[in-house]
Amino acid sequence: MIEFPPSRATALDRLKSFAPKAGSSYARLRNFDLTNHPHVSALSSYLTHRVISEEEVLIEVLRHHTAKDAEKFIQEVCWRTYWKGVLERRPALWDRYKADLNASWNQIQTQSGLRSEWEDACLGRTGIDAFDHWANELVETGYLHNHARMWFASIWIFTLRLPWTLGADFFMRHLLDADAASNTLSWRWVAGLQTTGKTYLARPDNIAKYTQDRFRPRGLAEFAAPLDNPNLPPLGPAPIDSGEGFDGFALHISDLSTDTLAQPNCPIAVLVPSSTEGNLRPSGLQQDFKTALANDACRRIAKLGETPTLVNSADQLNDWVASHSIRRLGFHHLTIGPSHDHISPWLNAIETAGVSLQPQVRDYDSIGWSAATAGFFKFKSIIPRLLDGLRQPSLI
Ligand SMILES: Cc1cc2nc3c(=O)[nH]c(=O)nc-3n(C[C@H](O)[C@H](O)[C@H](O)COP(=O)(O)OP(=O)(O)OC[C@H]3O[C@@H](n4cnc5c(N)ncnc54)[C@H](O)[C@@H]3O)c2cc1C
């Protein structure tokens, strides 16, 4: 069973052993969903929390391959950057998702048929063997192969005819790599909401081929008509770096990288909101993973000679800022998603109390997000620029 030990050391080991396979063998074999996932990197759970960065991954891969040989793998990493940019530029898509999820949650409170179909899907009791296997695999391991995610989402929407937001939410609560941008926009893409008129239909032959005949489900939908599609919200600006210094720094669970911390005598906090409120809670596996990664970040920071403080609430952040007399707080830009929803009000409160906020945006993100204005095809043209600007962060 695939496992994700929660440490940067594991992420680095995994990257080292995977990088030699990121060339032509990845291009040929990446679509196979096999036991233990031998042909993909399994790095997403670390990338999502920036325990390891996209730049580090790309640099290591380019030590073994030319950009041409590793084109497929590089493009996949860039899909991540692209989706992030799309959601940063159109944050209303996240608000719409949350509002629609809320409406679907209300529906399952009042419609017992829908509620039991939703429960069967989440508990792997639909009778579609492949789907039930993936539901269980997700809950047990916190991971699914990309192809399985596509098939699962397609069957959820077009065969089971369940609201897509409940499926996206099931993923968000269980995936260790749960990422608001990749998840929401991939579900939207499968449903035909993201690329107008284009849906993804899971086909039995394709599933049989890429699971090496482990599964050939029967009774799947044969057509996938796009869901109703309100226009995309308007495109906003890409987030920018404050360009200013700071006298205290807050890491958060969406970006635990320590490369910006090489500043002596700078108090450091690690912000970890507890997400136990609400009806739909993250899985214990996911919460434990996040907590362990935050502790791992604290141990890494301690090696820099600083003693970080774990902060779990707005009050604790306020107290920490006051006790260190912090006037300018640096932090990695909070991308749209649950961490942003939890932590932004904490930051707004200290800003109101007179602390100046100094968000930091990496050049890599800035270049990528600025280009996320249309489809991935257009975005691809800036990949050489992204690769030219790669900078090895001095992470610990
Ligand atoms: C419905 C659906 C939901 C998804 N939800 C998430 C999510 O919550 N979080 C998440 O990180 N990814 C998500 N993905 C994208 C993708 O499935 C995972 O990133 C990938 O499977 C992670 O496995 P890996 O690290 O072994 O990938 P590899 O194949 O080794 O790829 C290397 C890296 O490239 C990036 N990547 C690969 N494929 C994609 C993709 N299709 N879209 C965006 N980035 C990609 C990831 O960062 C990944 O770690 C989703 C895809 C679908 C279809």
- Looking at the structure, what is the overall shape? globular
The SSE order reads HHHHHHHHHHHHEEHEHEHEHHH
Structural class: mainly alpha
Side-by-side strand order of the widest sheet: 3-2-1-4-5
Q: Report the β-strand fraction as a percent range.
A: 5-15%
Number of helices: 18
Radius of gyration: 21 Å
Distance between the termini: 29 Å
Cofactor: FAD
InterPro entries: Crypto/Photolyase_FAD-like_sf, Cryptochr/Photolyase_FAD-bd, Cryptochrome/DNA_photolyase_1
Keywords: FAD, Flavoprotein, Lyase
Domain Cryptochrome/DNA photolyase FAD-binding: 73-203
Report on the architecture of this protein:
Helix 13 links the parallel strand 2 and strand 3. The chain is globular. It contains 18 helices and 5 strands. With 396 residues, it is mostly helical. The chain has 3 domains: 103 residues, Alpha Horseshoe (Serine Threonine Protein Phosphatase 5, Tetratricopeptide repeat); 117 residues, Orthogonal Bundle (DNA Cyclobutane Dipyrimidine Photolyase, subunit A, domain 3); 113 residues, HUPs (Rossmann fold). The model has no long low-confidence stretch (mean pLDDT 94). The chain binds flavin-adenine dinucleotide. Flavin-adenine dinucleotide binds next to helix 3, helix 5, helix 9 and helix 11.
In a nutshell, what does this entry contain?
The protein is mainly alpha-helical and 396 residues long.
Please describe the structure with a list of short key phrases separated by commas or semicolons:
single chain; 396 residues; mainly alpha; Serine Threonine Protein Phosphatase 5, Tetratricopeptide repeat; DNA Cyclobutane Dipyrimidine Photolyase, subunit A, domain 3; Rossmann fold; 5-stranded parallel sheet; 51% helix; binds flavin-adenine dinucleotide; DNA binding; FAD
